[in-house]
Write a structure and sequence with these properties.
elongated, mainly alpha, 364 residues
Length: 364
């Protein structure tokens, strides 16, 4: 029975050779993918097909070699009449067949994993365009109150630093100080309340917004990085390494990294930012516009002198928005990265751990 399975596997490897050589020459994007994820078929699919075509011969060689190695191990088990070696070889044959199926159906699997599944959550839209667009919009919206607060603080600080010095009395000697000098600030009655009620809290808000903007920028480039390198650097080499016995666990980890950071992460980001960042962006833009109006010209001083002044109220309104802002900027991204890491380890254990399981079974 085992000999028949080995024979069938070897015949399958030979029969799959022309199919593997031609299966990937045309990008696979069926009617379902065209309907629910046209962004994938029009953009990512063609790029993936072009990248995969250059790696196709190496993948073919790796899969054929994996069949040959499994057959050699099985023959060695027959020669030495070792049941454990034969069972181990059977596991390797099944692993080689799984790798061959992955290679043959790569473009179809890509359309399903990277196109159809995300569309079930975000609809017929590109999760990359959605998540990157919302992050970029949030960065721009965050810059607006920073600029408005900075302009108001600079105006108030400038006029608050202007002083009038009045000298009374005669100089007693050359270069000596005047007998009496009176220094009066132009806005002496407003300097202290403006500083306490507006400049200090506004400066604190600016610091928080800048930190949030840096976090958003880091998230933007993490998503952008994996958008370009996940398939050529992680997924395709991972498929090839998985077909090689000593590198199977490495290949499983590379595939897991690609799927987690190329599929799971941008999908979760697009969902989170779709439901959260619309209100965050609109609130930041409205507050920035109000600060700009309330700090125009001399209003930067007259509108910041009391706790009920417009600029002080604007800063308090901005402070009340920090909760939802940092939920979208820090909490949800941290949760998304945690879920992405969990998905990566689970997929790596499933893909790369199959060979370990079969090896353990075979050596029992």
């Amino acid at each position: 029975m085992e000999k028949r399975i080995v024979l069938i596997a070897l015949l399958l490897a030979v029969a799959l050779a022309p199919l593997m050589a031609s299966a990937q020459t045309v990008a696979s994007c069926d009617q379902t993918a065209q309907k629910v994820s046209p962004w994938y078929c029009n953009q990512i699919n063609q790029a993936t097909a072009n990248i995969w075509s250059s790696w196709e011969p190496i993948a073919f060689i790796a899969v054929v070699l994996s069949f040959m190695v499994a057959a050699i191990i099985f023959i060695a088990g027959l020669v030495f009449s070792n049941e454990r070696i034969r069972r181990f070889a059977m596991g390797e044959i099944f692993e080689a067949a799984a790798s061959a199926l992955i290679v043959i159906a790569f473009m179809t699997l890509s359309a399903t994993l990277f196109g159809v599944i995300p569309s079930l959550v975000t609809g017929p839209v590109d999760p990359y365009a959605l998540s990157l667009g919302y992050i970029s919009g949030t960065i721009q919206a965050t810059q607006m109150p920073i600029i408005a607060l900075y302009n108001a603080i600079m105006v108030d600080s400038y006029y608050g630093s202007q002083e009038i010095a009045i000298n009374t009395g005669l100089q007693t000697a050359i270069g000596a100080k005047a007998a009496a000098q009176t220094v009066t600030s132009i806005f002496s009655s407003l300097v202290v309340p403006i500083t306490q009620l507006f400049i200090v809290p506004a400066d604190a808000m600016m610091g928080l917004l800048v930190e949030g903007m840096l976090a958003l920028t880091a998230e933007f480039y993490i998503i952008l990085f994996f958008m370009y390198v996940a398939i050529p650097v992680f997924l395709i080499p991972g498929i090839i390494f998985r077909a090689i016995l000593p590198l199977r666990s490495v290949g499983g980890m590379l595939i897991a990294v690609a799927i987690a950071f190329y599929l799971v992460m941008p999908t979760l980001f697009s969902v989170a930012y779709y439901f959260i960042n619309i209100s965050v962006i609109s609130n930041l833009e409205a507050t920035a516009a109000q600060i700009t109006v309330d700090s125009a010209g001399t209003l930067a001083q007259t509108n910041a002198g009391t706790s009920s002044s417009p600029l002080a109220i604007d800063v308090n309104a901005l402070q009340s928005q920090m909760g939802s802002f940092f939920l979208s900027v820090l909490f949800y991204p941290a949760l998304i990265l945690g879920l992405t890491y969990f998905a990566m380890t689970t997929i790596a254990d499933f893909i790369g751990g199959v060979s370990k399981t079969s090896s353990r079974i075979g050596l029992l």
